[in-house]
Write a structure and sequence with these properties.
With 820 residues, this protein is α+β, with helices and mostly antiparallel strands. The chain is built from 31 helices and 18 strands. The strands form 7 sheets. It has a 4-stranded antiparallel β-sheet with strand order 2-9-4-7. Helix 15 packs antiparallel against helix 16. It is flat and about 85 Å long. It starts with a helix and ends with a helix.
Length: 820
């Protein structure tokens, strides 16, 4: 140690009496330091000893001036001390290689800071506030389903929403521009006509495309058994009438139809029943296709076209081929799992490229659809009954659409639009006119929370029960409240803790909570990025859309099981089960799984346990040609450990790829070379060591032992200095501090639930939720209940500069209001 070397050097120049005095002095200093550590040093002493060296007014490292901040009175600068707590909890500070206190001392210091911060927050809570919240695209689509029992593909009606803080439901980014308003008006016009069943709808075509890399040589889940390939379409037919189905086959790069060497039976099904069947292929079709003209192809396509009478409403359309033998064509020695890997191939099986559905033709009426049954809760039998019936219909719809009881003025306006449409046509047209206005009304497209007039500026208040109901439904369902939730809220019972918990548990058990999978998990875990991932076909010739969809569905089913089985959120990292079909099982090397149906299996390979062993995560954190320890490390730091990575500095050079003809280097070796650049090392020294532990998984999630001909080195070091070697050690290291992952997931879900970013003043609420979760084995329901019961979720600050009131003041006012 440096102190010992100094002390030893002085032995040669001091006399014996001086030696004794020096020895006693040094021993006393050492004993004093030891006693200070054993006696629980003050926060100020710890900060001065381990933090101020870097974080001072002169250096201003990371913008923290801890020499001026007072750890004995954290309320004076809570934002700074919350940053300190975050870094210490993650083990990121003091940095590796710098002196740091022992674990017990550090843990006690963090707990002291958190206790002080939580106590200060309890005295003056700040739940924050959000601006008016426009329904995003997913919420709009779900609201259409729940309001009108109609499913619409909003991707063609509304543009994609901007993201912030990792989610697309952040209120500040959900603005309304003139162009976007026009799109909402157009969407409302189309949806209202479709929902009511406007008999003046003109025929049109809608095309559904098959991804070019979809393997179509096996059965596709959802299509009738006994078929192979094709496409499953959920289509809403506007009216009772005739509809035309046109199918286009995939061509190779020579513009020739594939798979004409043998006959194949083509079928169109509606709700599982065959409505059209044709045969294509064989010698005659093959000879006609060899002709330079397009007559042969046109003759085949004409055979596949069908005009079918169909009742109005949603139906499931299947377009596929009858499954035949699985024998391979002559000359194929060892085929790839991806059947479309060779763009020149003309043999094999015919493939469907797209299907167009046109209509309605020869329409006979609006039919009996789920949307008409939802809308027309009454039918007038005379002119005198029309207005009362219209009022009943519109009152029912508006209550759901506006998420609250409807006032007389609002109803008069809706009836005015009804009358305008009725004057131009039928009763149904009147309802359609009022519905169109309702769907464009800001009270539907926006979630407004109005400050009460009897509350002072800057004061904290509880949102009313109807606003709480909307917060709850858009959090858990990404949609509007249902009748039961609205009724409880309108009665003023939703703030009752027992009633609120009962509603939360009911809503979690409802199938609509699948929105937490598709919208929350889909963004937090980057699952939405799976569809856009396209691994290089030369590097990964077996990868196809079947596998891509398998990755997505595995994680969807896995997360859904955590929700509906109310499992511990730690199982997201450590569960010994997953969901696979035959295609995915073959990719993972799991035996004895057959067929396209997904089923639950026990994971026997420890490396595959939890999210870190699933192909969805491994795919979206890789590049098209190789793995990326950087992306994987960044993902884990930000989404699992809650340690945001600083943005890269400008003009950072890209990682050098292996040069043709040169000796290939592993990704790890190239990154080590990359880190020699000081500008690159700042971020990479944090991310890379975490990502290296997952290097045994390649860019498409398959296990490997070598990279570029060299054995893989999967060793790494976490930010707190913990050494890991491979995915199992990484997972165990993360789970050794479960509160870190629980806190990160809580922050992510609270961000999603509130529709705003998490601020420093929200962290006391986050810690309270995590503590309650720990007492309930980290069950998913305890996370959701903790968020719903938290101050940020139930309360709001009125706009203004006045400091928030104390909890006692808020509760006192609430009690007075109840008495009055």
């Amino acid at each position: 140690m440096p102190g010992r070397r100094t002390f030893s050097a002085r032995l040669t120049v001091v006399s014996r009496p001086r030696l004794s005095l020096c020895l006693l002095t040094s021993i006393s200093a050492w004993v004093g330091l030891t006693c200070m550590q054993a006696a629980d040093p003050t926060p100020r002493a710890l900060v001065d000893q381990y933090c101020v060296t870097c974080h001072n007014e002169k250096l201003k490292t990371a913008g923290l001036l801890l020499d001026k901040a007072d750890p004995g009175n954290v309320s004076l600068d809570a934002e700074t001390w919350e940053k300190v707590v975050r870094k210490l909890r993650a083990g990121a500070m003091p940095p590796q290689g710098m002196p740091r206190p022992d674990h017990a001392t550090l843990e006690h210091f963090v707990e002291t800071l958190e206790t002080s911060l939580d106590r200060a927050a309890a005295q003056r809570p700040n739940p924050g506030r959000t601006v008016a919240h426009r329904l995003n695209r997913a919420e709009y689509a779900n609201a259409m389903h729940d309001l009108l029992s109609i499913d619409v593909d909003v991707t063609g009606l509304l543009p994609a929403d901007d993201e912030s803080y990792g989610f697309d439901n952040i209120a500040e980014t959900l603005r309304m521009s003139p162009v976007l308003l026009e799109r909402y008006l157009s969407a409302a016009r189309k949806i209202s006509r479709l929902a009511v069943g406007d008999t003046n709808i003109i025929p049109s075509y809608e095309t559904y495309r098959v991804r070019p890399d979809l393997g179509q040589d096996e059965h596709i889940e959802g299509l009738p058994l006994g078929t192979r390939g094709g496409i499953l379409i959920h289509h809403n037919f506007a009216l009772d009438g005739q509809y035309i189905f046109k199918t286009k086959l995939a061509l190779n790069t020579s513009a020739k139809v594939r798979g004409l060497d043998y006959p194949n039976d083509f079928v169109i099904t509606v709700d599982g029943a065959i409505v059209h069947k044709a045969t294509m292929g064989g010698k005659a079709d093959e000879d006609a296709s060899d002709d330079n003209s397009s007559d042969g192809e046109n003759a085949i396509l004409a055979r596949l076209e069908a005009k079918v009478p169909i009742k109005a409403g949603p139906h499931t359309v299947g377009v596929a081929f009858i499954q035949k033998t699985s024998a391979q064509p002559d000359g194929v020695m060892e085929p790839y799992l991806r059947s479309t890997v060779d763009p020149l191939e003309q043999r094999g099986v015919p493939l469907i490229d797209n299907v167009s559905i046109g209509g309605p033709f020869d329409a006979t009426g609006p039919g009996d659809t789920p949307s008409r049954r939802r809308i027309f809760v009454c039918r007038p039998t005379s002119t005198a009954e029309e207005v009362p019936c219209a009022k009943k219909i519109l009152t029912t719809l508006a209550r759901r659409a506006y998420r609250r009881p409807v006032g007389e003025g609002e109803m008069e306006r809706l009836l005015g639009f009804y009358q305008q449409g009725r004057n131009e046509g039928s009763f149904d047209q009147g309802i359609e006119s009022a519905l169109r206005f309702m769907l464009t009304d800001p009270k539907f497209t926006f979630r407004f929370e109005r400050d009460p007039g009897n509350v002072a500026a800057g004061a904290v208040y509880h949102v009313d029960d109807l606003e709480l109901a909307s917060r709850l439904s858009f959090f858990m369902w990404s949609s509007i409240p249902d009748d039961q939730l609205l009724t409880v809220a309108a009665q003023g019972k939703l703030h009752d803790p027992a009633t609120l918990e009962a509603q939360v548990r009911r809503m979690l058990a409802d199938p609509r909570s699948e929105a937490l999978v598709s919208n929350f998990a889909g963004q937090w875990l980057y699952l939405r990025n799976v569809n856009g991932a396209n691994p290089n076909v030369e590097e990964f010739p077996d990868f196809d859309d079947n596998l891509r969809e398998g990755f997505r569905k595995e994680t969807d089913l896995f997360f859904d099981s955590i929700i509906h089985e109310d499992r511990s959120i730690l199982d997201l990292l450590n569960a010994n089960y997953t969901f696979v079909n035959e295609r995915l099982a073959r990719h993972y090397g799991i035996p004895d799984v057959y067929g396209s149906r997904f089923r639950r299996i026990t994971v026997t390979d420890d490396a595959r346990r939890g999210l870190l062993g699933q192909g969805s995560f491994l795919l979206v954190t890789s590049y098209a040609t190789r793995t990326s320890p950087v992306l994987r490390g960044k993902w884990i730091l930000e989404n699992v450990l809650g340690t945001p990575v600083p943005p890269p500095p400008p003009n950072v050079p890209a990682l050098k790829e292996n040069a043709p003809g040169a000796k290939p280097l592993t990704v790890r070796a190239r990154l080590e070379e990359h880190r020699k650049n000081p500008a690159c090392a700042v971020c990479h020294k944090i991310m890379d060591p975490v990502g290296f532990s997952l290097e045994n998984f390649d860019a498409v999630g398959q296990w490997r032992d070598v990279d570029a001909g060299n054995p893989i080195d999967a060793s790494g070091v976490l930010v707190d200095g913990t050494k890991v070697d491979g995915p199992v050690a990484l997972r165990q290291a993360i789970l050794s501090r479960p509160q870190t992952f629980a806190s990160t997931m809580t922050e992510k879900m609270l961000t999603y639930a509130l529709g705003r970013g998490i601020e420093y003043y929200d962290m006391p609420a986050v810690r309270a939720i995590v503590r309650e979760m720990a007492n309930n084995d980290y069950r998913f329901s305890s996370l959701v209940l903790g968020i719903v019961k938290s101050a940020p979720f139930q309360m709001r600050v009125k706009k203004g500069d006045v400091q928030p009131e104390s909890v006692a003041q808020v509760e006192s006012k609430k009690s007075v209001e109840r008495v009055q």
